[in-house]
Every structure is written in structure tokens, then in C-alpha cells.
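User: Quick sanity check before I run a bigger batch. Here is a single chain. Can you write out its predicted 3D structure?
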Amino acid sequence: MGQINWPRVVLGGLVAALVMNVSQAIMTQPVLGTQMAAELTKHNLPPMGGGAMTFYIVMDFVVGILTVWLYAAIRPRYGPGPKTAIYAGLAVWFLAYFRSRSSLVVLGVYSTGVMAVAIVWGLVETIVASLAGAWLYRE
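Assistant: Done. Predicted structure follows.
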């Protein structure tokens, strides 16, 4: 069993994060932007501003690197390739997307409909990002 190749984890993670950031920009602006802003306004919450956007961009880089790290960590057990990358993506999606976005519904911040789109969008996004990042990983 080889050691994790950290430079490749970071490289793959940055690519995965780029996929996530582009995807999130598309989802939160042209796709759901108007609905999300209306729901925030309805609850007297401020619109998503520069500080929040910066936070999410940085967190996507952290999540991208963690996704490729998880791929590298489970690769010895499941083998290299897309199936293992999908497993890593599914785990990250559940922990980072499904759980957090579901909690926004439970807290009443966003409606079930808006977050259902965001959750499914995140599933596709996370799997594509994981596949892209894992493609660059080599031990």
C-alpha cells in the first residue's frame, strides 16, 4: 500500500474545487438566484454578499482537496478509477451538501423546493468534481 501523493491531492483538489465553484456560481445566480434572494428577504435575512461568497469559494477549495484526499485514502480498498471516485463524491455530497442543505429547510431558511434542486444539483456537481480531481491523482 503506497503513501498518499499530497502534491497530486492538492492538484486534483484544486481542479475539483474549480468544478464546484463554477457549478455553484451557475446554480446560485441564473438557476436559483432569484428564488434564493426572495426567500432570504421573506425571512428578513440579508442577501448573499461578498463576504458570504468569499467564504463559499474558499470552502469549495477545502472540500475539493478533501474529496481527492478521500479518493486517495479509499483507493487501496476499492481500486483506482471512476467507481472509487464516485464513492468519494457520494460521501462528500452526503456530508457537505445533503446534510447542510437539508438543515436549511429544517431551520426554515429555504423552501423544500429550492433546496431539493440545490441538493440534486450538488449531487451531480460533487460526482463530476470528484471524477475530475481523481483523474489527476497518481500515487
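The chain has a mean pLDDT of 95.

User: Great, the batch can go ahead then.
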